[in-house]
Description:
alpha/beta
Amino acid sequence: MGHNKEVIKVMVFDLNGTFYNKSSKDEFYKFIISKRPNRIKYYVEMVYYKLLLKVNQIRQTEFKENFFNYLDDFSPEQVKKYAAEFWEQEYPDNFNKELLQRFAELKAQNVVIFCATGGLELYVKPLFDLYKIDGFAGTCVKYTGHTYLVQGKACKDEEKINRLEEFLDGKAYRIIEAYSDSKEEILDRAEKAFLIKDGEITPY
């Protein structure tokens, strides 16, 4: 059997409310506030954008750009520094213990471990410097010298699959397991899919 025909086994997981027990978007904001109290002024705005998103008045991409206005004027280096400190504080205590164990088993079987999250890569990346996995995809942003703008599409649904395929460089693959806190494309594509609610893992 030719090696180029080998199908790569992949395990895909979502970050927020899944591997990480909380929402990094909200927690990272609280963390920034603890460091820079004057950023509280963005809170009202964030509640407003969350509301607009709920009533479908804005797209996910637009929502992310506006929600993350609290990072305005922080250079990417500064955000990464804060993020590294934030994750050091959160990991491993606020992560799903069962998943940590399962990931370790899959790593030992040479399964590719991939995280696909709607979170911004900018602040998610330092987590994976701390906890090594094969690859991850998040929403990409570009710093314009003042504010962060989403590049391409927010990393949701179909886009997560596109990003996974990009990462695997066109190689054949099977998603043998997937974990998320909401019904989404990665679960439908997986051979074994699991939903996570308040840390409880149930078959999808």
